[in-house]
């Protein structure tokens, strides 16, 4: 088995008043890849650092945990360290936590974007469908060629599935292509697919994989096509190329989970978060997006945040 990376972080500053009134929280974080390899991993790391800062929590981070054997070993080690709130930063940990939780009743397990059905297991879920839907609408609006594309990591991503629906609702004649890298970090595959589709005149891409999105944006800049970024604001890669980015505010979910944990209100099961919760949003728009288009997409998103209905659902109700 490969060597595990183990990091312990201690905070020496004073806790905020709300945390002082409750039992101390000791936090563990499991990551599938090194922190620097994925934007998603970096966000998880920053999430626990926020808990360290806000709640005077001791934080233990373990990287490169990718299978059940490694996870079981990591959980045992973290339990010995006194961890009582454990984040598995990804859907991969959901089933593994459900196999381990009965042996660790003093730990509350949290995974992401999957189901959870045990008394001490919760899942924090980003509702990615609307995020992809609105990205598809914007891509269709911005396309000159009438051909847009999504490069995703895996076909099960709801934002990948929604991209085509949003695009075709806005423009029934739009051509939508999709390619999957089968990896969150495969730069080579993402760049290959972008080249392939740009050769077929796709001119707006949604790069729905945080580990490869930056490399794809760099190639898109070379090819003179536009991109909607993923998870974080990626305009710094190429302002002229990036139309906007679909943001997932991971740190907000960590703070929500920690606050509920300390208050005794962290329920088991799946907790969903969307635009209405401030957990998902669009980054500032790039110079290629006209003011009229910004206003239009913002109005659509605001309407969805208020009533929970995507544009085609509102249209069906009116009919």
TrEMBL record:
Location of this chain's protein in the cell: Cell membrane
Membrane-topology descriptor: Lipid-anchor
Positions of the ABC transporter substrate-binding protein PnrA-like domain: 27-312
Chief location of this protein within or outside the cell: membrane
InterPro entries for this protein: BMP_lipoprotein (IPR050957), Peripla_BP_I (IPR028082), PnrA-like (IPR003760)
Residues annotated as signal peptide: 1-19
Pfam families for the chain: Bmp (PF02608)
Keywords of the record: Cell membrane, Lipoprotein, Membrane, Signal
Protein family (similarity comment): Belongs to the BMP lipoprotein family.
Name of this chain's protein: BMP family ABC transporter substrate-binding protein
């Amino acid at each position: 088995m490969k060597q595990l990376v183990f990091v312990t972080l201690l905070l020496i500053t004073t806790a905020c008043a709300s945390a002082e009134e409750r039992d101390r929280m000791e936090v563990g974080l499991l990551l599938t890849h090194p922190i620097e390899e994925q934007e998603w991993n970096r966000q998880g790391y920053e999430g626990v650092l926020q808990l360290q800062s806000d709640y005077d929590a001791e934080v233990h981070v373990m990287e490169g945990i990718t299978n059940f054997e490694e996870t079981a070993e990591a959980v045992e080690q973290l339990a010995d360290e006194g961890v009582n709130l454990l984040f598995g930063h990804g859907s991969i940990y959901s089933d593994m936590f459900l196999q381990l939780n009965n042996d660790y009743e003093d730990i509350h397990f949290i995974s992401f974007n999957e189901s959870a059905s045990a008394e001490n297991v919760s899942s924090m879920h980003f509702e990615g469908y609307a995020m992809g839907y609105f990205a598809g609408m914007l891509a269709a609006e911005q396309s000159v060629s009438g051909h847009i594309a999504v490069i995703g990591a895996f076909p099960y991503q709801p934002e990948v599935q929604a991209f085509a629906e949003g695009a075709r609702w806005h423009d029934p004649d739009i051509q939508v292509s999709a390619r999957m890298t089968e990896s969150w970090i495969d730069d080579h595959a993402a760049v290959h697919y972008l080249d392939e589709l740009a050769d077929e005149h796709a001119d707006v891409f949604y790069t729905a994989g945080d580990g490869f999105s930056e490399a794809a944006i760099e190639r898109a800049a070379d090819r003179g096509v536009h991109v909607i970024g993923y998870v974080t604001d990626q305009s710094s890669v190429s302002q002229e190329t990036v139309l906007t980015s679909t943001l997932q505010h991971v740190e907000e979910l960590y703070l929500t989970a920690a606050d509920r944990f300390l208050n005794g209100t962290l329920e088991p099961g799946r907790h969903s978060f969307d635009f209405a919760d401030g957990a998902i949003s669009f980054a500032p728009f790039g110079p290629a997006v006209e003011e009229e288009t910004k206003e239009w997409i913002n109005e659509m998103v605001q309407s969805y945040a208020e009533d929970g209905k995507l544009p085609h659902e509102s249209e069906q109700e009116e009919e």
